[in-house]
Amino acid sequence: MISKYILSIVLLLPAFVTCNRSPLIEIEQGKIRGVVKKDWKGGRFYSFLKVPYAKPPIGERRFKDPQPAEKWDGILEAEIDMPQCVQLDSNKKIVGQEDCLYMNIHTPNVATKNLRPVMVFIHGGGYTVGSGQLDMFGPEFFLPEKIVLITINYRLGFFGFLNFENPEIGVPGNAALKDQNLALKWIQKNIEMFGGDPGSVTLFGESAGGASVHMHMLSPLSKGLVHRVIAQSGSANCIWNEAQKNTGIYLAENLNFSVDDEKEILKYLQSIPIDDIIKVEKKSDRLLPLHKIPLFGPVVEPLHSGDIFLSESPAKILSRGQFQKLPFILGFNSNEVLVVYAQDMLIYGELKEMPEHYFIPHQLNVTDEESKQNLFNRIKKQYKINEYKAGTEKYSKLFSEIFIIYGVYASISEHVLVDHKDLYLYKFSSDTKLNYFKQMHEDIAKMPGAGHVEELGYLFKNKFTPKDLTQNSIEGQNIIKMVKLWTNFAKHGKPTPKNNDLGVSWLKVTRNKLNYLDISTDSLITKVEPFDRKNMEFWDKLLGKSVKYEHTEL
């Protein structure tokens, strides 16, 4: 999430396709055949790659709500990885394509009466980069647990989040979230033929993907499509999880297209080359900003604009408890800021401090310089920052808490206040060769904890996975326990059911106790209160939130 470009460090590698093919199956769209692969324990599974769930969002469909995929003739040979959606890579070069609404499906068996739980992953990337491709989200660690794993693409940047406030234009925003919603509908209709149980779907995601999966709990459009949710280092309450209104006008103005008729503006934006649109994205911040409303992300849609994904702000929906109270895991990594430090070292060769005003949430509407400075002085006093310097413990704590951890705290507090029962909280701090960014630079390797994104190395095989990985290694043992927690939840609605082989009972969050699971390199331990309470209450008060939730210790 945090960096727009860090995830594009991990670009697509050509997918290796075996000559072995899966059984031929038939769904409503047509016949489809995948490939046979092996998981990391030597078991066989089937992969169906680049399966379309929507019509290509091109031409007059650009920026619009997605439409269901059409039927195809003959046999769809689902052997090659799906493409990225249009985005900028780490060098600010355009990669990907508009025709990108596909999913990869991995299953231990097809067309079987013994239906398996389904896990659907939504990638992060600040709503501007990333994909569900194999190079970062290989299924080999999950498939020994006999679940069906799906990764999806959704539109990014302007292509996924352009909006007009005028409902007559037919582009109300949240097209990317509706892409995800349509993928979930496709899964409900078709996954049984791939051996998956449509009545047991766990939606999980990381960073902006974590915020996305939380949003599906809040949206009536997704009711009944999901049965359990895992939000990793991202939630609907994160300060960056909202976007500017009327970005269609903004984009046209930045392209020097001066026409008052909004319908003409839309036609123009649907007709111009991709490069013209992306060049405006190049001007935006490298981080999802806190100090101003981001260009890309969820928006409250105008009434009378068709199928509305979000009719009110997440804060209002959460405060009233008007959402699906599904079994829910959410959590964060112990040193989220490391993702930015890694980018700094790779690009600049040194760590760079963010401008001080970047830490002042835009919701406070502070505009004059004197007020900004006074407010930041309050923040520095709260965090006891005498030396404002990237890489220091106090700077790292401030960054990690305001960008990610406070959003998790605010979300878990909102859920428990409306008597949401099945809540599980975690803090991830494992530190091995599976931590991506620590492998990229020796200075980052010396810093403690797990950075943003790094828990994904313990769930998915990727191009940074050590070549000599074994099940008995410290990395292998950590993969086993992390995957087991997530798949237990998908199978049972509990990450540590009775008689589990992990040797721990992950206690639920209650009104009186913020129980959490400490996921470290060497242990799994249930503890109480992962947050710095004084800092969390500081942000609560600063943002005008009433502090109702009193925690007690064991």
Give an overview in words.
The protein has 554 residues and is an alpha/beta fold. Helices cover 27% and strands 15% of the residues. The chain has helices spanning 157-161, 175-190, 208-218, 247-254, 262-271, 274-281, 314-320, 338-347, 369-382, 393-417, 442-445, 474-492, 533-542; strands spanning 25-27, 30-33, 35-38, 44-52, 75-77, 87-88, 94-95, 102-107, 116-122, 148-152, 196-206, 228-232, 328-333, 423-428, 515-519, 524-528. It starts with 24 loop residues before the first strand and ends in a 12-residue tail after the last helix.
List the helices and strands and how they pair.
Layout (H helix, E strand, L loop, with lengths): L24 E3 L2 E4 L1 E4 L5 E9 L22 E3 L9 E2 L5 E2 L6 E6 L8 E7 L25 E5 L4 H5 L13 H16 L5 E11 L1 H11 L9 E5 L14 H8 L7 H10 L2 H8 L32 H7 L7 E6 L4 H10 L21 H14 L10 H25 L5 E6 L13 H4 L28 H19 L22 E5 L4 E5 L4 H10 L12
Parallel strand pairs: 2-5, 9-10, 9-11, 11-12, 12-13, 13-14, 14-15
Antiparallel strand pairs: 1-2, 3-4, 4-8, 6-7, 8-10, 15-16
